[in-house]
TrEMBL record:
Gene3D superfamilies: P-loop containing nucleotide triphosphate hydrolases, Tetratricopeptide repeat domain, Winged helix-like DNA-binding domain superfamily/Winged helix DNA-binding domain
An example molecular function term from Gene Ontology annotations: DNA binding
Pfam families, per database record: GerE (PF00196)
Superkingdom of the source species: Bacteria
Record protein name field: DNA-binding CsgD family transcriptional regulator
């Protein structure tokens, strides 16, 4: 075979960690330092992470050192190495300088000498001019050899990050990158189970056999010789083997209680105690459940590889006997299935029945496992195929999309049946692939025949309802609901979601959306679907407290991560509207983590929109831009991706007062709205932002018809926030046309309209806009009072950027809080502009910061130059200093 050249590889987890770390480093301001601690197992990719950081940190000087165990007592060893890379005799003088940005990376930091660590911490905490980021990379479980310890450093750090093991997708990608090996999903899963996903261990498995071995149809996964040798060197007492075999029977993701292991040892605790004393086994407690586990996953792999088939089957049968004795028939059947020497329809049918029961209760993970093992031991190929599909459907319902995608590969070339098509379409829908989802789901419906049962027909219609939600077609949601419930299919687990989505469709097509109570006889995991819809509806109808209560309920460990991510999207938006900015960002980030872990790309823009909004309010513009750059949607994306993405871009452009970007975003939304109706009251509010921009840009003739249409649409909605926002827009229009008193009356009416609601962010924003507009119209005292209220409200929610905006407006008005200025020479507005420009701001930058147009800045600067007797901006700073 030809020689394969290894390209660079970075796992999804590593790339994500690098992305977060680079973002945190780049956010450091001048005169600030940051300490970051990264931990991972040996071979987890810490070195590759350092390479990623070095490759992507533009404009930073990077120095890197590796601590060595035999130099741990050599004081300043690491700091000396770092100093030599940066240059100069004094590290502080070389890093703490204006316009200097330095990153210092220490690999294997748990072996770093204490003097170097203390020096690095002291430098980070005492920066005055430059930017310094110190990244310490250490092995899991290692706490260092002195002071400060890794535990102390984590407590002092700005961020402590962990490198997750390889996922199955990572292992498959690594196989291609490392040696051009196209691993199948089942093979990659087996490698992950025996290696724990540790990159170094994965490499050992791949390299232990010739490359050609992996090209076989169903390659066996070998145990590397180095693992066998290590095991034999450490396990010298033969009496340990029975205990290790008993502990190895339970898969890594199973609960493995001590009582089970003792049962498999016929009650003999001596081998078990010896295994604990030697460190080959240990106890792990999770949620008060104690399990016996292997600290070293490779030891379990060796034990299983050397266990005879007879011993293997006997132990599994004994484990099944143990669970039957405890009344846990489901677990007993799973051990039965794992210990069978061949197919067995009796056990398979029982497992499939338990899978049905788990699905009806919303325990999708359990359902998937039952179906999977039922399929594995089914003797009939057609029945096996049906149960495999049921297993994948359950994985998708549980949002384990990565594993579902791997198993679905077996069906990707076979879309000849509606059951296969609906499964592939359902998966593509969750992963945000619009064309693929539409093709499969439409074809599934077309291919239904008379012989297909009502359950399959109902399930396909239910998936088409979800497609209608993703495409934001409320009328089609209702249409497919009728199809899904046309024939009785009582007890079908998908029906709970079907009724929840129908409620959403009815609310979106009603003149006034409203929440409704959910049934009381459904399992808790399925109740969350009703919570999600009712929480969303409560949020858009201004019942923010109700929305927070519904969406903020504790999440069941069962159920669907997809539903939990929808909940995170609306809970984050609710926190934002309530002015709880920190909570909003925390929840949105949690949702984005779910998006990444479960491949729920469909929901990413909903979460990013909140993140962008919060960061602009708090003045974290670089972070806001980072989030904004992740809004990578296209014309092939679903509408629930395109709509919030376009709105987020409009909101961001308005926040930074960028007229060109606002024009682009507004034009995009207008074009989108021209062929797709998403202006149902409350669901996707954006029109008032665009109308306000048009009015401010002297395009009132374009704004007028849009405003009239929006007012008509929300008139009977009962949503006070929407009506208040449009009242304020109408007030803007009147003031722009010269009717100042009429505009003031409408702004007052808008504030009164939301006076009995709890909408702190909207209230502060209306006060701010009202004050800005009437200040420019000459009502400075009135404007100052409004801006003072806005400033106080923004301050209460830690919206620091808008606190400063309000203060600037007040200073420019010259009535309230303002900076000293040359009396009788410059107006307050002129002085504010002059200070910004003298400080180096361009006209455009000054316009954005003061929420004025560039032409207005130019007009005021001309007056400033004339009053100060200067001709160009280079003279401005000196002229201001003279007066």
């Amino acid at each position: 075979m030809p020689t394969f050249r290894t390209p660079p590889f970075a796992s999804r987890s590593l790339t994500s960690t690098a992305h977060r770390l680079i973002g945190a480093i780049e956010e450091l301001k001048a005169g600030r330092g940051g300490l970051f601690v990264v931990t991972g197992s040996n071979g987890s990719g810490k070195t590759e992470l350092a390479d990623e950081i070095t490759r992507h940190l533009n404009g930073w000087t990077v120095a890197q050192s590796t601590a060595l165990s035999w130099h741990v007592h050599s004081d300043n060893r690491v700091i000396t190495h770092l100093r030599r890379q940066i240059g100069g005799s004094d590290l502080r003088s070389m890093t703490d300088r204006p316009n200097t940005s330095v990153v210092m990376i220490v690999d294997d930091a748990h072996w770093c000498d204490g003097a170097s660590l203390r020096k690095l911490v002291e430098m980070v905490t005492s920066m005055t001019a430059g930017r310094l980021a110190v990244v310490l990379m250490a092995a899991d479980g290692e706490d260092g050899v002195g002071e400060p310890s890794m535990s102390q450093l984590r407590a002092l750090s700005h961020a402590s990050l962990g490198l997750a093991p390889f996922t199955v997708d990572d292992i498959r990608a690594f196989g291609l990158s490392h040696a051009g090996i196209p691993l199948g999903p089942h093979t990659a899963r087996s490698i992950q189970l025996i290696s724990g996903g540790r990159p170094g261990r994965v490499r050992e498995v791949l390299d232990t056999v010739p490359r050609e071995h992996w090209f076989e149809e169903h390659p066996t996964v070998p145990v590397p010789k180095v693992w066998l040798t290590s095991f034999d060197r450490r396990v010298t007492d033969p009496e340990l083997i029975p205990a290790l075999q008993a502990a190895a029977v339970a898969p890594p993701f199973y609960h493995n209680p001590p009582a089970l292991v003792l049962h498999l040892l016929d009650g003999d605790s001596d081998p078990l105690e010896k295994a604990f004393e030697a460190g080959f086994l240990r106890r792990r407690t999770t949620n008060n459940d104690e399990s016996i586990v292997f600290p070293n996953r490779t030891d379990r792999a060796v034990v299983l590889a050397r266990m005879s088939p007879v011993r293997h089957n006997r132990l599994h049968r004994a484990a099944a006997e143990f669970y039957r004795g405890q009344g846990d028939e489901t677990r007993a059947l799973l051990y039965d299935a794992r210990g069978l020497p061949g197919p067995d329809e009796h056990v398979a049918a029982a497992l499939a029945t338990h899978g049905d029961a788990s699905g009806k209760e919303g325990r999708w993970g359990d359902a998937a496992e039952n179906y999977f093992h039922a399929a594995r031991i089914s003797p009939d190929p057609a029945v096996r195929n049906q149960r495999q599909l049921a297993s994948i459907e359950a994985l998708i319902a549980a949002s384990n999309n990565p594993l579902a995608r791997q198993y679905a590969e077996a069906f990707s070339g076979d879309s000849g049946t509606p059951a296969v098509d609906v499964m592939l379409g359902y998966l593509a829908l969750q992963e945000g692939r619009r064309n693929e989802a539409t093709e499969h789901l439409d074809r599934a419906w077309r291919r239904l025949g008379d012989a297909d049962d009502a359950m399959l027909r109902s399930r396909i219609a239910s998936r088409l309802m979800l497609l209608a939600v993703a495409e934001w077609k409320p009328e089609r949601i209702i249409h497919w609901f009728r199809e899904a419930t046309r024939e009785p299919v009582d007890g079908a687990p998908h029906l709970v979601e079907t009724y929840s989505m129908a409620q959403l469709g009815h609310a979106a097509t009603a003149a006034s959306p409203a929440t409704s109570s959910h049934p009381t006889d459904i399992p808790l995991p399925l109740v969350r679907r009703h919570d999600m819809v009712n929480g969303w509806l409560a949020m858009i109808t201004d019942d923010l407290a109700g929305a927070r209560n519904l969406l903020g309920r504790p999440t069941s460990s069962e159920g669907s991560e997809r539903i939990n991510t929808w909940i995170d999207a609306w809970l984050a938006q609710t926190h934002l509207l309530m002015g709880e900015l920190s909570q909003a960002l925390t929840v949105a980030e949690r949702g984005l983590s779910r998006v990444e872990n479960f491949h729920l790309d469909l929901l990413e823009p909903l979460l990013l929109r909140t993140c962008i909004h919060v960061c602009h309010l708090t003045g974290e513009t670089a972070r806001a831009l980072e989030y904004q750059n992740r809004l990578t949607v296209s014309s092939e994306s679903f509408m629930v991706q395109r709509i919030p993405s376009a709105i987020a871009r409009l909101e961001a452009a308005v926040y930074v007062n960028d007229p060109e970007a606002t024009n682009r975003a507004g034009a995009d939304l207008t074009a989108l709205a021209a062929h797709h109706d998403f202006s149902q009251p409350g669901f996707w509010p954006w029109m008032d932002l665009w109308i306000n921009h048009l009015i401010q840009s002297d395009r009132a003739d374009e704004a007028e018809p849009l405003l009239e249409a929006a007012e008509a649409r929300v008139a009977n909605s009962g949503i006070a926030s929407l009506q208040a926002r449009l009242m304020a827009s109408r007030g803007r229009l009147l003031i722009q046309r010269g009717d100042l008193d009429g505009g003031i009356r409408l702004f007052d009416a808008a504030l009164a309209h939301i006076s009995n609601t709890s909408l702190p962010l909207l209230h502060a924003s209306l006060l701010y806009d009202y004050g800005r507009i009437i200040r420019r119209a000459g009502r400075r005292a009135h404007a100052d009072a409004l801006l003072a209220q806005a400033e106080e409200r923004f301050a209460s929610m830690n919206a620091s950027a808008f606190v400063e905006h309000a203060r600037r407006e007040r200073r420019a008005g010259g009535v309230g809080v303002h900076t000293p200025q040359p009396e009788g020479v410059l107006t307050a507005q002129e002085h504010e502009i002059a200070l910004l420009v003298a400080g180096g701001a361009t006209n455009q930058e000054a316009a954005q910061r003061l929420f004025l147009s560039a032409k207005t800045i130019e007009y005021h600067l001309t007056r400033v130059y004339r009053k100060l007797g200067i001709r160009k901006r280079a003279e401005l700073a000196t002229a201001l200093a003279r007066i």
